[in-house]
């Protein structure tokens, strides 16, 4: 590509070698041939979080057949939030679509998010996927239900599902947010803290068909408690000041 694309699809991965190729082909199938404003002018930025399997080698091989693909590699494992941020920093598009690397998000929903953006007000900077029919285990759905209820009560972000990996947001607005580990789970609240509006959009959700989950209910809960308190503190201490040049 000689010019900057309008959309960058950022996908963080860690030990997902069997999910890489199918998901990349689904992304290209969903976006190639569309009008530029509808997502047809795009790049794919994969961020390998220092995988211990051959995920990186698979990505390097795919670059030969997928011209839209770019690959960023973490020299040390740094976590999903850092992978997303580094992918966004490397991205050239003004708008970013994110997907989880496990294949549970459906790339066919990206045009749906773009269509929502086309009819939204300019102050809406985040379109968050909402998994209305989750395909996870009963225990994971139960844990997420309670976590979402507690988060919503504390942060009042009016978002039914902040853990969904598929999102569409403005690159500049995202990079202006405070960065910390696990911040990707609180994007609606952080965007609203910055003075922007957010919209939740129903999307598909699929079973994981390869690889294993990198999280369990216990480690999610333990880190979630301190994260939630920290985000609540940020919101309480935050102040939005609009500026104009005169």
TrEMBL record:
Any Pfam family the entry gives: Glycos_transf_2
GO BP field: lipopolysaccharide biosynthetic process
GO CC entries: plasma membrane
Superkingdom assignment: Bacteria
Residues passing through the membrane, by range: none
GO MF terms, alphabetically ordered: undecaprenyl-phosphate 4-deoxy-4-formamido-L-arabinose transferase activity
Domain spans labelled Glycosyltransferase 2-like: 8-174
Keywords attached to this entry: Cell membrane, Glycosyltransferase, Lipopolysaccharide biosynthesis, Membrane, Transferase, Transmembrane, Transmembrane helix
Protein name: Dolichol-phosphate mannosyltransferase
Originating organism: Lysobacter daejeonensis GH1-9
Lineage, opening ranks: Bacteria, Pseudomonadati, Pseudomonadota, Gammaproteobacteria, Lysobacterales
